[in-house]
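Quick one: structure tokens for this chain, please?
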Amino acid sequence: MSKTTYKIPIGPIHPSLAEPMTFNFEITGERIERVDLVPGDNHRGIEFMGRNRNIIQIIYLAERICGICSASHPYAFCRAVENAAGIEVPPRAEYIRVIIAELERIQSHILWAGIAAEELGFNSVLYLSWKVREEVLDLLELLTGNRINYGMFMIGGVRRDITEEHLPRIRKTLDYYKETYQTLENVFLKDPSIAIRTKNVGILTYEQALHLASVGPTARASGIKKDIRQDQPYSAYADMDIKAITPDFFTGEVKGDVFDRIIVRILEVAQSVEIIEYCLDNLPEGDIVSEPKLAKLLAVLKKAKGEGVGRHEAPRGEAIHYIKLNESENPEVWRARAPTYNNLMSWIPMLQGQEIADIPIVTASIDPCIGCMDRVTLVESKTNQQQVLTREDLIKLSIAKTRRMMK
């Protein structure tokens, strides 16, 4: 008897999707035979808006690319501008940047763990995870004034200092996560129910992750030891010996499944605690910003000419910002690439061959942020027909654009 294949669309609005995204599945019985991704419902035009703002104003726009990574994008953006304009960041500011970034990694990974538990149907674990996450959010509010969108980063440094009065509260939070870490490990890495639902599910092999240019925990869970903090260390990371965490640290092997992606994030919570402790123990004295007067800083940026790239290892993976300054208040070019843009295609090999019931946890396992990565579809204004660009077309357009930019 021949098998019958059915087509099932999921999205763009679906209970298991926090953001609009369309999946077109072909299934046989309960098994997924093929999947096609259809993004494009959530483009916000942030880069376009940025080109109509001055360089300093863009910092706060970059911060809103992602609410959960609201330190990562301004971090990468500021590094890009500093690179283009030749601005040096004081050592104390570099350490404070890393402290904020690692506190964000803790809250982001714990938030993801709670969402993953909810996708598996374990709402009690969701509540536990978000209760644990409150501690770091309260600390971020104390240090920056906000639980999300911290407003901490400035070109040439940071806007607020970490004072002696803050240190006991920071260490209290770090001690809390040291004490709570074993609970997180027991719940997520030693619970048989979670293991049954995540082991050998949504496998992304080393070769597939490498071929698809996966980044962050998605790549590391497949055994790729890729981490910007390790490979091209910056800020205070350059003073530490950061090691990319892979699942064999815990299990002794790498499968590249959903369980391995849980392992990497849970272990990285403990790693972030260690990084913050190092920064507190070695926090340099001195200024927190190269130029405290914003009007003077903007005057310097208006005269700057050059290109810069800023990279940061965000919780989801490497975030990259590119800026081109051309002696103007507004940038000539600003481009941001969020890690989800790289990890999106990893869904295809992860989902093929899986059961329909595995779709929510597999899609959640890359910690997607659709609003961060979404792009537009080109449409011919006269004919209103979608324009399909081949690989050769894209290469030609890229070369032509590069030549225009170099003039």
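The radius of gyration is 22 Å.
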